């Protein structure tokens, strides 16, 4: 099915089901519950799960397959956002043309950056990408202000010379971004047993884009091209001894990865038509690196899990303030309540980065393969326990295993 074997087809169908059911999965607690603080089923956060999942999937094609660590991928995210907003200002607020332009411009920009930076490898490549990305950030922030609107950011206005569609709605406001008439901000809500589920047009559009992006990455991973990228990561020197030039493959991976980042930037602009230079900062590039490593570099689902994990912490844990903590521990005596809040306070709210950093350290230390390695360990433990139970029930004798050969 779709060029995939049976195992990959089942995997893709599971991903599709989980993506489409996200409004249910991210709303486990009733609105009246004290744990409703941890619900993530609102449109803006669900959109970011999908968008930054795409960003991380693209980065994983470069880093996970070739081993080239880029610290400048946020430049393509920003370029994609600027391109999409300009298309909405000049042509139409329909999101499709803006997203197409974002992918094309980001791909061309990645071709330029990759052609320069891939002349080096290792830490030198990483530093080059970081330097070029910071140059792009400074250009967008201060030099190219007629194009980027500098510090304020580029956004839609009532004076935009839009060719298709209206420049203003009948009530005098800026027209919303849409998909052939379906507004991205449109939502429908369904309340069931105290759970309020929100179905947002923008999220499902991003979800479909994420599914397509995941499918393409799956095809790349399973293709001969993907095998060549793995060969580059394994031993590029040995590969060159066979007469193969690795640079065209790494450049292609870099461009594809940049186009993924451009798609993510275009989707960000489609959900909220605003593009700012802060999306091109080195911190945004570092964030996608952490997403990929945290989830599991080189795996298919790992970057998506890492992106969801970090965006969840950023949006949920950052909102837990002292008032929320006092509400949770109000049952304690006053002195003890204040003490507990004092202990937890540095790890939530503005200090959520501290909690994320500690979790990242634990994952890297005990699960070098990321969250996917943890899932694999649990799966193997469960299978081994089930197999032992089956052997015991059937009365299978437990003979000692033969000593494996040294070469095994």
UniProtKB/TrEMBL annotation:
Organism lineage: Bacteria, Pseudomonadati, Pseudomonadota, Alphaproteobacteria, Rhodobacterales
Renumbered residue ranges of the record's region Disordered: 386-408
Compartments, as annotated in UniProt: Cell membrane
Residues annotated as transmembrane: 50-69, 74-92, 98-116, 123-144, 201-221, 248-268, 288-313, 325-345, 351-371
Domain of life per record: Bacteria
One Gene Ontology cellular component: plasma membrane
Main location: membrane
UniProt keywords, alphabetically: Cell membrane, Membrane, Transmembrane, Transmembrane helix
GO MF, one annotated term: branched-chain amino acid transmembrane transporter activity
PANTHER family noted in UniProt: ABC TRANSPORTER ATP-BINDING PROTEIN, HIGH-AFFINITY BRANCHED-CHAIN AMINO ACID TRANSPORT SYSTEM PERMEASE
Membrane topology recorded in Swiss-Prot or TrEMBL: Multi-pass membrane protein
Protein name: Branched-chain amino acid ABC transporter permease
């Amino acid at each position: 099915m779709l060029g995939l074997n049976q195992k990959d087809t089942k995997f893709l169908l599971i991903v599709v089901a989980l993506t489409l059911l996200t409004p249910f999965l991210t709303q486990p607690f009733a609105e009246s519950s004290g744990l409703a603080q941890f619900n993530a089923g609102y449109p803006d956060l669900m959109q970011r799960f999908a968008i930054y999942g795409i960003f991380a999937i693209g980065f994983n094609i470069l880093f996970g397959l070739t081993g080239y660590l880029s610290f400048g991928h946020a430049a393509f995210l920003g370029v994609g956002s600027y391109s999409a907003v300009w298309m909405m200002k000049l042509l139409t607020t329909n999101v499709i043309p803006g997203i197409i332009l974002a992918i094309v411009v980001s791909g061309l920009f990645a071709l330029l950056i990759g052609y320069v930076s891939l002349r080096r490898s290792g830490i030198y490549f990483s530093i080059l990408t970081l330097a070029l990305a910071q140059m792009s950030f400074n250009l967008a922030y201060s030099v190219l202000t007629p194009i980027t609107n500098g510090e304020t950011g580029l956004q839609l206005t009532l004076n935009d010379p839009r060719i298709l569609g209206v420049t203003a709605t009948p009530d005098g406001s800026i027209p919303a971004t849409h998909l052939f008439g379906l507004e991205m901000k449109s939502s429908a809500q369904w309340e069931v047993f105290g759970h309020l589920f929100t179905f947002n047009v923008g999220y499902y559009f991003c979800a479909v884009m994420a599914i397509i992006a995941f499918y393409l990455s799956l095809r790349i991973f399973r293709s001969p091209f993907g095998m060549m990228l793995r060969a580059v990561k394994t031993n590029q020197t040995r590969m060159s001894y066979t007469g193969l030039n690795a640079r065209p493959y790494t450049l292609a991976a870099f461009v594809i990865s940049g186009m993924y980042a451009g798609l993510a930037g275009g989707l960000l602009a489609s959900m909220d038509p605003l593009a700012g230079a802060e999306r091109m900062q080195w911190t945004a590039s570092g964030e996608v690196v952490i997403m990929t490593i945290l989830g599991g570099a080189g795996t298919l689902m790992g970057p998506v899990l890492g992106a969801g994990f970090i965006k969840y912490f950023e949006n949920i844990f950052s909102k837990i303030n002292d008032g929320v903590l006092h509400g949770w521990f109000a049952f304690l005596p006053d002195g003890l309540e204040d003490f507990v809040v004092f202990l937890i306070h540095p790890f939530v709210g503005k200090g959520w980065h501290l909690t994320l950093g500690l979790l990242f350290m634990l994952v890297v230390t005990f699960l070098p393969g990321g969250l996917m390695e943890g899932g694999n360990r649990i799966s193997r433990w469960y299978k081994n326990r089930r197999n032992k139970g089956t052997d015991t029930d059937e009365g299978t004798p437990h003979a000692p295993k033969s000593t494996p050969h040294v070469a095994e």
